[in-house]
C-alpha cells in the first residue's frame, strides 16, 4: 500500500476509534446541536472529572472531529464534520446491501398468504 494510503487508513482508524466511545459520540452530538462550547459547558453534561473529559476531547481532536480555539483562559470546542463524511462514504455500500435485503424480505412477505384466509 502506498504511503498516502497508509496515512489515509490510519486517519480513518482514528475516526472510527473515536466514534466507538459513547461519551465521545455524545460530545459530538452536543456540539452539533448547540454549536461551539467551552470545555466547562461540555463537562456539565457528564458525570466524570474534567481530566477524563479532556482525554476524550484529545481523542476527538486527534481524529479531526473537533477543533479547539483558545479565548482567554477558555478552550472553545467546535464540531469538524468533514471526517464524518468519509465514514458515511465507507458505510454507504452496507446501507445499500441492507436496503436490498430488506426489499427482498418485503417481496417475500408480500407473496406469502395471510394467516386469516381460509
Please give the number of β-strands: 3
Mean pLDDT: 87
- SSE order in H/E notation? HHEHHEEH
Assembly annotation: single chain
Q: Specify the biggest β-sheet.
A: 3 strands, antiparallel
Radius of gyration: 21 Å
The structural class is mainly alpha
* Strand numbers in spatial order across the main sheet: 1-3-2
Estimated helix fraction: 55-70%
Morphology call: elongated
Detail the poorly predicted runs.
none
Throw out a few tags for this protein.
single chain; 118 residues; mainly alpha; 3-stranded antiparallel sheet; 5 helices; 3 strands
The gist of it:
The chain has helices spanning 3-19, 22-34, 39-43, 50-62, 82-111, and strands at 37-38, 66-71, 74-79.
Describe the protein's architecture and organization:
With 118 residues, this protein is mainly alpha-helical. It is built from five helices and three strands; from the N terminus they run ααβααββα. Strands 1-3-2 form a three-stranded antiparallel β-sheet.
Amino acid at each position: 500500500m502506498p504511503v498516502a494510503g497508509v496515512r489515509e487508513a490510519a486517519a480513518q482508524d482514528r475516526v472510527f476509534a473515536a466514534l466507538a466511545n459513547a461519551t465521545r459520540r455524545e460530545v459530538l452530538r452536543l456540539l452539533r446541536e448547540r454549536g461551539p462550547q467551552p470545555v466547562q459547558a461540555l463537562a456539565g453534561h457528564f458525570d466524570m472529572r474534567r481530566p477524563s473529559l479532556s482525554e476524550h476531547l484529545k481523542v476527538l481532536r486527534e481524529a479531526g472531529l473537533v477543533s479547539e480555539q483558545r479565548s482567554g483562559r477558555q478552550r472553545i470546542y467546535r464540531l469538524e464534520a468533514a471526517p464524518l463524511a468519509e465514514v458515511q462514504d465507507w458505510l454507504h455500500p452496507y446501507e445499500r446491501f441492507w436496503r436490498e435485503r430488506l426489499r427482498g424480505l418485503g417481496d417475500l412477505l408480500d407473496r406469502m398468504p395471510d394467516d386469516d384466509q381460509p
